[in-house]
Amino acid sequence: MKTGWIVVNGYLEIEKFDEIYNWLMEAAKKRDCVLKKIANDQLDSILPISSGKTNWRTVPDFVLFWDKDVRLAKLLEAEGFPVFNSAEAIEICDDKALTFIQLKNANIKMPKTFCSPMTFDNAYKDYTFVLQVEGSLGYPFVIKENKGSFGEQVYLVKNYYDAVEKIKSIGHCDFIMQEYIESSKGRDIRIHVVGDKIVTAMERINENDFRANITNGGKMKKYTPTEEQSNMALQVCRELKLDFAGVDIMFGKEGEPIFCEVNSNAHFKNIYDCTGVNVAEYILEYILEKIGG
Q: Which of 4, 33, 44, 245 has the most neighbouring CB atoms within 10 Å?
């Protein structure tokens, strides 16, 4: 019998998160695998940063890392555990600037994207960089905090003063400034990839917001990706070395796919409700095959 840990964040007590964890543990159980849920704050205290290996009483066959505590993921990898997704993949996907930098030369169509300049005191005294960016992007353009989920840290700014006020309001957070894809206003597709295979997809439509996220009031329907969209989703996961992910793709003026973003541990309750496909089953099947189970 194989055993695994599902590492979660100990400070997120949210029902929709617990539901995902339970689905993953149930999928493991169906495959004669015991998947134990462990919070990141429980592991941090027993993983010393020192030379040599820890004397573990019980060693799991794999770690399903359903958190974004990248340092902990790296420590687990240093201990020799197979970690899914890898710490490197999670780190890149959790930072929108790093994601676009990593994909920059991969021949993947993306919106024009600029990174916010680094500031040591976390406050800008000069906003000339906004003037430089607006010359390339025009208005409106999109500001996205580098670390954000469910579309909640994504803003559409309509002029210079709007952009400056928004940058002031997000404070110390790093961000990217991005071309607004008008042709995909309130509409995109989410494709779930597991083990270099597309397992399900849905279209998200929001008539009242430029963001298509279901959390922001969007609606969803089952969707069959085109060959171009499918190839883009698969290529993104290969380039970022992801074992599984949710890839969001926008629609260009001619319907061509434009990469939006990727989530290394995408929630799959909505897509299950939409398509009837339980992504947890595919994830556990993939991991057990990968480790020889």
A: 4
